[in-house]
Amino acid sequence: MPCGLDFQGSVVDIMRNDSRPLLARWILTVAVLLAVMPAFSAGRDREAEIGRLVKPLIDSQLIPGVAVGIYENGKATVFGFGSVGGEKARKPNGRTIYEVGSISKVFTGVLLAEAVQRGEVGLDDPLSKHLPNGVQAPKRDGKEILLWHLATHTSGLPRIPSNMAATDLANPYASYDREKLWSAIGGFRPATPMGETYAYSNLGVGLLGTLLSRAADKPYERLLRTRIAKPLKMKDTTTVLSRSQKKRLAPPRAAGGQPTSNWDFDCLVGCGGVRSTVDDMLKLVAATLSDKSDGIHDAIKLSTERKYTMPGLMSGIGLGWQIAQDGSTLWHNGQTGGYHSGLFVDRLKHTGVVVLANGAEPQVSAVAESIIQLLAGIEVKPPNVRSHIAVPVAKLDRLVGEYPSSFRFTISITREGDALMARLTNQTAMRVFPESPTLFFYRDVEAELEFEMDLATDRATAVTLFQNGRKFRCVRKK
After folding, report:
1. How far is residue 183 CA from its own chain's centroid?
2. How far apart are CA 205 and CA 151, in angstroms?
3. Are 419 and 400 a contacting pair, CB within 8 Å?
4. Where residue 32 falls among pLDDT bands split at 50, 70, 90?
5. 15 CB contacts (<8 Å, ≥6 apart)?
6. What letters, b where the CB count within 10 A reaches 16 and e where it falls short, cover 466-476?
7. pLDDT above 50: residue 3
């Protein structure tokens, strides 16, 4: 999430793919030991080992809790750590429901493969074959975007639509409908040659989900339920929760731990609108590793086949799936405004990991990656989380106020309970954590706030924002 002078940013950009740092760290093909924590072995306590990895995230209040599933030797095991949070102080479990964010793209890739098998679409179909009459298909150099380009992020389409004006930053995709989608697509010129350059696009995969829905003449939710969830017995994998499922939904928490809103999707549901549980996601893992040959298993196999290789890297893309540098491990992660998720499937070791958390904290993906590495016999260490101290509410109140700067933005400092919140002009409020009574840091971006105090009045008179090697001093409004 943006901070500092990035005033054009918004919560819309949270639902991004964090593939680049993960791809840089993925080392299954080299014999490197990452230090201190022993790898899993037959006699080790798996719950304790995983607990050491997730404990720093929970102790630092990055997330209230997390549900972890591992698949090994044909057996699925689920562990819950921390609390679901809010009024639900229970420990998360395999039936706790979460938004899985961009892992939805894996489901959309499987639906594409399944539709290919049915003969409803072809991977090489141009968009014009499936767009409504009157909507001009995007072209570049006389060529059209093909369906497989959408699934592999090689369509040249931007990350989000240019006409996506999120009126509600806490639920940014809810009001984006087909009329707006066709307006954004019509006549658009892709930024790069199709099929040649990887550029992550929520718009592209969201469009793919809508085109698959049009081809089948069924809503995306129905395709998901009948073509994937039902045959795999994934009873809690859906885009629309029932009343009973809502009772098991972990309440969303923004980065920093404050309550936030769930996200709803309209026509871009295929890029991030799926909800699921660890129990269900482990069934997807099992199906991905299965040797069965039938409709759904054949579709999953097709979705895992490499369709694009990143230049200079051994990593690649299937239909929705990311392929790690070992050439075999499949993965994807996801993040919405109040959740983060990680999914890894190691086809060589025949293992899998699912980690779901109700906290918009990217380090959840790093934990999932660490667990799959442990299962592969690689040593890892817990995430390095910056610690914070407790500051009395009375001392936080000394800092509350408006701090205009000469750079045409204002830092608004407020208090919510025992949490200090900072909001820059045109951005959402984010929690900052105290390293001292006057030095606070963000957890979701690399930035700090340092307050200057008037000893006579015991009130802050100014605050300096440190970010990207620059500092911006803002004097408190009297």
Report:
1. 27
2. 6
3. no
4. very low
5. 101, 102, 173, 202, 263, 271, 272, 334, 335, 336
6. bbeeeebebeb
7. no
Task: Tell me what percent of the residues of the chain surpass a pLDDT of 70.
Answer: 90
Degrees (nearest 5) of the Cα angle 382, 383, 385? 130
**What would the mean pLDDT of 267-278 be, rounded to a whole number?**
98
What's the CATH architecture for 11-375? 3-Layer(aba) Sandwich (3.40)
The identity of residue 296, as a single letter, is: I
Helices of type H across 247-390: 278-289, 295-304, 363-375
Angle between helices 178-185 and 202-216 (to 10 degrees): 120
All CATH 2.40.128.50 domain ranges in the chain, comma separated: 393-475
Q: Which two tokens stand for residue 398?
A: 């000394």
Q: Is the dihedral of CA 417, 360, 25, 466 positive or negative?
A: negative
Summarize pLDDT for 342-391 with one digit per residue, the tens. 999 999 999 999 999 999 998 999 999 999 999 998 888 898 888 888 89
Strand pairing report for 459-467 and 470-475: antiparallel
For 298, the token pair is 């054949």
Report the relative pairing of strands 447-454 and 330-335 from DSSP bridges: unpaired
- Outline which parts of the chain fall under CATH 3.40.710.10: 11-375
> What does pTM read for this prediction?
0.84
SS (H, E, C) 341-380: EEEEEECCCCEEEEEEECCCCCHHHHHHHHHHHHHCCCCE
Contact 269, 219 (CB under 8 A): no
CB 115 within 8 A of CB 121: yes
Q: Which CATH architecture has domain 393-475?
A: Beta Barrel (2.40)
Exposure string for 97-126, b = 16+ CB within 10 A, e = fewer? bbbbbbbbbbbbbbbbbbbbeeebbebebb
Q: For 333, what's the count of Cα atoms within 13 Å in the CB-facing half-sphere?
A: 28
Angle at 106 between CA 105 and CA 112, to 5 degrees: 85
Which of 62-76, 191-205, 379-393 shows the lowest per-residue confidence on average (mean pLDDT)?
A: 379-393
For residues 291 and 249, is the Cβ–Cβ distance under 8 A?
Answer: no
